[in-house]
Amino acid sequence: xxxxxxxxxxxxxxxxxxxxxxxxxxxxxxxxxxxxxxxxxxxxxxxxxxxxxxxxxxxxxxxxxxxxxxxxxxxxxxxxxxxxxxxxxxxxxxxxxxxxxxxxxxxxxxxxxxxxxxxxxxxxxxxxxxxxxxxxxxxxxxxxxxxxxxxxxxxxxxxxxxxxxxxxxxxxxxxxxxxxxxxxxxxxxxxxxxxxxxxxxxxxxxxxxxxxxxxxxxxxxxxxxxxxxxxxxxxxxxxxxxxxxxxxxxxxxxxxxxxxxxxxxxxxxxxxxxxxxxxxxxxxxxxxxxxxxxxxxxxxxxxxxxxxxxxx
Length: 312
What we know:
- The protein is of the alpha/beta class and about 300 residues long.
- About 30% of the residues lie in helices and about 15% in strands.
- It has one domain (about 5-65, about 125-305): Phosphatidylinositol (PI) phosphodiesterase (TIM Barrel, Alpha-Beta Barrel).
């Protein structure tokens, strides 16, 4: 029997799961409590999000190691310009001075999400805030795909790695959510540390082949991800050998053969990040277990129209 948090991401004959990517990034500020609450309120019980540490070792939910002017405003209300501040160099009280509620529509990143609501007073949340939200009785079915963001500056430091994992796992344990949390990363060394410290929280292995392009306006996974683009390598087999319960490839890189092999190995398969109708339909045709998306409503509609459910 698979652990309950893996079962939550596993599909069935008429079920394909929906994972709200950074909440519902296509329509609400990413990695924000308002975005997470919205996704959960629409019946999307699975959330993917990114965790970093501040200078005073507070786990916070944000994607990039540096605050980007395309989606972050300073205390003066203007989008950031010049050298971007690193989250790890800022204390939590300083982080709270930045607003993540709007996108700069003139930036390449901002143009990717023209339908995202523009809001004021939206702050980078602590991990503890999201854990509190999903602890509410109305969200008792919510499960978390918690991505630990490996910092290239300290990726080779075992002390820093162990400290990061310890701080994050302590918060999840303190909230009583170990049986509703997957630990998720591109950095397989970091996931090995997660397994050492938290064997009760299953591992989700993100993959992106090194010849694939990075998303516009986002930090690359390539510096911390293993090189899996070598002759004879079966990515599902490598994930299984590394102790994975879930494999999370980019949707453009999965094949029917690899999906079948993953199933033979007992892996749950969630694909990232699927936003366009044709791509959503292709993943439904493939019968993946779960679809990670910035637009949960789009996936809901296509699943519903085709006779699928996304929850039991």
